[in-house]
């Protein structure tokens, strides 16, 4: 008996009285294989809203491996040959390789063969045989992705398949933020399936208060809050996408070196940074690295903070949260903050 669960929203927006007074423009659409919700608090912002959703659709048409005509599909279908791509696709892959380097290959967008094999994001996921996993692993290796910036082209080795699911939403979010700045929007919330960007402040000038999802609770349950402005927050966790087989849960965060969903002490990792691309890439990277190495990486980087929750309900905070630079409040006494 298999059970598939898809939980799209990783955070909880707490109630804002001031926001409701601002009569926001709010719109939701199903894009990027998730629910995308945008809220803009400026008046006369319908044109901006339409522009944002048009951009999301255009990026999906470029980045989705499931769209036959996407640039990622063209790369995958022409392995061994350089394929000309847009600057957006080139930069997305280029930034992905950065996370591969700092994680020693644990973050790897050439993980497509494993993603397809497990099918955790599809209708009929299954536990592959060890032989199937070993064969898929042979097709993975970010060092076999070649970039030629001079003519904006990308090539992958035979058998490889790129999957941008671990970084595309963050990359797209940053592009949407650029539109908000260009259009002089003062206050907005971007939620790309749990990839959040708190743009500006609330209309009353105060910070946004975001609830951090309880990884062991129901959707809508939160165990802590953080106060943020002009920044992104993204979580990777064992509760987001998973299926169950023979009494065991298999989540979607696959380790390209073992071929299996990562099974370490972590239940979730939330990353806070002005760059949503950094949040997206680091949330997966740090989850795969584990608590010790993941937190060590965060402390070595500028403009990145982390909340790591272990399976025994302990909460570990990076220095910017410990020292109060980013206000953090534990609200669930079942959890313990480790100093």
From TrEMBL:
Membrane topology: Lipid-anchor
GO annotation, cellular component aspect: plasma membrane
EC number: 2.7.1.180
Major enzyme class: transferase
Sorted UniProt keywords: Cell inner membrane, Cell membrane, FAD, Flavoprotein, Lipoprotein, Magnesium, Membrane, Metal-binding, Signal, Transferase
InterPro entries from the UniProt entry: ApbE, ApbE-like_sf
Region forming the signal peptide: 1-22
Binding annotation for Mg(2+): 166, 280, 284
Superkingdom, natural source: Bacteria
UniProt family annotation: Belongs to the ApbE family.
Function comment: Flavin transferase that catalyzes the transfer of the FMN moiety of FAD and its covalent binding to the hydroxyl group of a threonine residue in a target flavoprotein.
Name of the featured protein: FAD:protein FMN transferase
Gene name linked to the record: apbE
């Amino acid at each position: 008996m298999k059970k598939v669960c898809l939980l799209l929203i990783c955070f909880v927006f707490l109630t804002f009285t001031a926001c409701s007074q601002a009569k926001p423009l709010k719109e939701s659409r199903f894009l990027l294989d998730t629910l995308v919700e945008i809220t803009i608090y400026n008046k006369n912002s319908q044109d901006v809203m339409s522009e944002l959703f048009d951009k999301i659709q255009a990026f999906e048409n470029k980045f989705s491996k499931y769209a036959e005509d996407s640039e990622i599909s063209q790369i995958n279908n022409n392995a061994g040959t350089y394929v000309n791509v847009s600057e957006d696709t080139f930069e997305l892959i280029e930034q992905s390789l950065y996370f591969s380097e700092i994680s020693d290959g644990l973050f790897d967008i050439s993980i497509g063969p494993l993603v397809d094999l497990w099918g955790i994001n599809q209708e009929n996921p299954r536990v592959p045989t060890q032989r199937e996993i070993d064969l898929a692993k042979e097709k993975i290796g970010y060092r076999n992705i070649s970039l030629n910036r001079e003519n904006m082209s990308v090539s992958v080795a035979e058998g490889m398949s790129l999957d941008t699911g671990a970084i595309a939403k963050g990359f797209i979010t940053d592009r949407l933020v650029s539109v908000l700045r260009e259009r002089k929007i003062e206050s907005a919330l971007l939620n790309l399936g749990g990839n959040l960007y708190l743009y500006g402040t609330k209309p009353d000038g105060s910070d946004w208060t975001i609830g951090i999802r309880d990884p062991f609770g129901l959707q809508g349950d939160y165990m802590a809050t953080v106060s943020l402005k002009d920044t992104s927050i993204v979580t990777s966790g064992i509760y987001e996408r998973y299926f169950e087989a023979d009494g065991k849960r298999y989540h979607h965060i696959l380790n390209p070196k073992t071929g299996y969903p990562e099974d370490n002490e972590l239940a979730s990792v939330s990353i806070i940074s002005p760059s949503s691309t950094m949040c997206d890439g680091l949330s997966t990277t740090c989850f795969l690295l584990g608590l010790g190495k993941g937190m060590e990486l965060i402390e070595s980087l500028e403009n990145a903070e982390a909340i790591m929750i272990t399976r025994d309900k302990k909460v570990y905070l990076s220095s910017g949260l410990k020292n109060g630079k980013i206000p953090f409040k534990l609200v669930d006494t079942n959890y313990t903050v480790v100093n």
